[in-house]
Amino acid sequence: MSQNFLNYIGGQWVPARSGRTFWNHDPATGEALGEFPASALEDVDAAVAAAAKAFRGWRLTPAPKRAEIVFRAGEIIRARKEDLARAMTREMGKVLIEARGDVQEGIDMAYLAAGEGRRMYGVTTPSEMPDKWAMSVRAPVGVVGVITPWNFPFAIPSWKLMPALVAGNTAVFKPAGDTPEMAWHFTKILEEAGLPPGVLNLVFGSGAEVGNPMVEHPGIHVISFTGSTDVGLAIAGRGGALGKRISLEMGGKNAIIVMDDADLAHATDAIAWSAFGTTGQRCTACSRVLVHGRVHDELADRVTAKAKQLKLGSGLEPTTDVGPLVNRSQVEKVHAYVEIGAKEGTLAAGGGPARDGALAKGHFYRPTVFRDVPAGARIAVEEIFGPVLAMVKVESLEQAIEINNASRYGLSAAIFTRDVKSAFAAMRDLETGIVYVNHGTTGAETHLPFGGTRGTGNGHREAGHTMLDPFTEWKSIYVDFSGRLQRAQIDNA
Ligand code: UN1
């Protein structure tokens, strides 16, 4: 049963001005799910105007009151967790337990961000002059533009929009074309929670027709983007030239290092979960294992056996381990890499789409393992964003760390070892935004900063105690109560 959905602009649910629409589809069955406005510049203009208007009142609403609305949204999300998770699995394919986890991140983030409404600490410091008071406070930036991907269609909008709104900004939100329905639920819930009209505006459509006009729009002051490195860098270039603040979360090529003293059964479970969970479509997914030469063959055998056991199917089936890829072009991209990999390493599991029986209608791809892959091979270096794992032999921890740090990306890395010296050296020397010890590369918790180095980001961190940083300006305030001219750096020198 399909449904029609509308943009949300200035507190009204409205179609695209052009009347054009697009559809989202169930990647497990190909079924059309819903019809959404295919918006364009004029819709972005309307959304920015509504956000600018709403900013006047919202920024003056006390932060604890703004935060209460976000808290209420968390309560609504919690009450609807199961329905939201099912809608997510239908819309983008990940298995139900993972979809529940994605929704849970939204709940966690709502409660965490709501708490900031009663903190949002500033800093006071003594003035160098007598009878003068000095402090720094956070101020909202204005209208923020939020552009989100399909792989975490609830968690990622939560990381961005909840802190942005608590901080007193208003927002224009453009979700990925593959997962508009989750963005609709997210927005509807905030409306129900009591968000005033215009504070959050939802505009569906493509990157070219909605995303680019947002980046160009003089009324949008911050762009917060999660997605591919190529698109992110283009946004940074254009937005930077226009003087905007651009906060980016982009690709990853996350490695798990396995030392020869590691618990290989534990490492195997963690590798399989990190590499094939969400069908490999996490920025944090493990796509390469840097394994000590002494245990490479044993670990490769174990991981291969595990990959072959995983059951493909609809994410709604409780027995399914791995759901479909999100769309056909992802299948094509993944398969192109697998063909490259076949020339670079030894194919040990998977290696092609799965089309038997009920799988024929969906975008399924077999969990794929390559062993004996050279560290410089394309499948060991480039982001694939699918269920493809490259196992690379290393001779030492130093070599593993060097390979990890030479990557274009720097989101997450992990080490399996029983040796405290290796663990602490890895914690110190791995140049990624997230490091795990005896744990896979996925599963970041919302109350720690999330983001990466090098091609993964541009220095910003989302969530955690850093959540307000992309969405606030620091304002330093001096209050002189001396009643006379006082000249800093001069009268007291
Ligand atoms: C992402 O893939 O962009 O750490 C987000 C994790 C999840 C979030 C992933 N909590 O794997």
Radius of gyration: 24 Å
Q: Which stretches are low in confidence, meaning pLDDT under 50 for 5 or more residues running?
A: none
- Count of the separate structural domains: 2
Would you identify the CATH architecture of the largest domain? 3-Layer(aba) Sandwich
Q: What ligand species are in this complex?
A: 2-aminohexanedioic acid
The counted number of beta strands is 22
| Biggest sheet strand line-up | 15-16-17-14-13-19-20
List the total number of helices.
Answer: 14
- Assign a percent range to the helix content: 25-40%
Keywords: NAD, Oxidoreductase
Protein name: aldehyde dehydrogenase (NAD(+))
Family: Belongs to the aldehyde dehydrogenase family.
Subunit structure: Homotetramer.
Q: What topology does this entry show?
A:
Elements: E1 3-4, E2 7-9, E3 12-14, E4 21-25, E5 32-37, H1 41-58, H2 63-79, H3 81-92, H4 96-116, E6 123-126, E7 132-140, E8 143-147, H5 155-166, E9 170-174, H6 180-192, E10 200-202, H7 207-216, E11 222-226, H8 229-241, E12 245-249, E13 254-258, H9 264-276, E14 286-292, H10 296-309, H11 328-344, E15 346-349, E16 368-371, H12 378-381, E17 388-394, H13 397-405, E18 409-410, E19 412-416, H14 420-429, E20 434-437, E21 453-454, E22 472-480
Parallel strand pairs: 1-5, 8-9, 8-11, 9-10, 11-12, 13-14, 13-19, 14-17, 16-17, 19-20
Antiparallel strand pairs: 2-3, 4-5, 6-7, 7-22, 15-16, 18-21
The chain binds 2-aminohexanedioic acid (UN1).
